[in-house]
Specification:
The chain is built from 7 helices and 7 strands. With 256 residues, the protein is α/β, with parallel strands linked by helices. It has a single domain, classed as Rossmann fold (3-Layer(aba) Sandwich).
Length: 256
Amino acid sequence: MNIEFSGKTVIVTGGAHGFGRAIAHAFAARGASTWTCDILADGLNETAAQASPAPGGRIETALVDVADRAAVGRFVDRVTQATGRIDILVNNAGGVCGQTGQPIEDVSEEQWQVIFDVNVKGVFHFAQAVAPHMKAAHAGRIVNISSGAGLGVSLTGIQAYASAKAAQIGLTRQLAHELGPFGITVNNVAPGFVRSNPTTEKQWEAYGAEGQQRLVERLALRRLGSPADIAHAVLFFASEYAGWITGQVLSVSGGP
């Protein structure tokens, strides 16, 4: 299976590290004009510096808060003005926003809301901004990055995170039906635990040797995955091979 994206324009949110960086690199390496955004300038600079684009491929970066609707609109306008198209959107920005698990009675409204803003509102903002361009082309791919927490429970015990990722899956299915008549597919990748960024590294260390062993032994493949494993699932959903697949959630988790 040869998957390539020459001539395609791709937006990847949350590209400063981890999954977003791996996804952006994977598209650029396959010839895509890849535009990635985040709120972490240093991380974006590293993503651009470490890229190895194929001929015709490139990575452009921008500081964008996905929870800011106006900023999202400006970024999408910038991409379309530069390339004239948006073929693929990968909504990867998300996470626990520095929070740790605590009893529900101790969770503040602000703690709850900030996680929803990044993990759900950001997906809504970007889908809303790119939809007119994809509708005009009568083609497009939207891939949302959820989590195993959206299918079950969060390993961190963060109520808002599990709820937001489940909400994102619901939005994926709804948009698949709304946008399908325009030739646009909308799918979701739900990663299992992957050591991909400073937050997951802290989580891994907190488990200790015995906890780490138990986590790995619960997986059918008996090993942790990598950001590349998540990127490969995204590439499939974004490719022509997935042209008749929409509204689906693919668990990429090593088989827990």
